[in-house]
Design a protein that fits this description.
Layout (H helix, E strand, L loop, with lengths): L3 E4 L2 E3 L5 E8 L7 E7 L6 E6 L6 E3 L7 E7 L4 E8 L8 E8 L7 E2 L3 E5 L2
Parallel strand pairs: 2-11
Antiparallel strand pairs: 1-3, 3-8, 4-5, 4-9, 5-6, 7-8, 9-10, 9-11
Amino acid sequence: QVQLVESGGGSVQPGGSLTLSCAATSTVVKLYTMGWFRQAPGKEREFVAGISRDGVGTYYADSLKGRVTISRESNEGAKTTVSLQMDSLASEDTAVYYCTAGLDPRPTTYWGQGTQVTVSS
């Protein structure tokens, strides 16, 4: 069973930064690409970023390149943490952000519950 738990969401002013984290406590996750998707109100879910199981390969939505950075860290046990650093946030970044895991560069096999990010002055 793969469980993904997001944290770090909240409210931020336009132009600000925020870092989201996703904790996975399953050794099998170490074999998966992990990623982030988001869903804004009234819109479909969209891919944000992905990172390969060894952390070397990173994949970004074209519209977000340069503003987001994904990273991952694994300990010797079962825990893997994936972070999403977001900069120069704007109102259109307001969305629920989901952590995901799977075999594709844009993984969609497993999903977390999501964390809300609100960008507002």
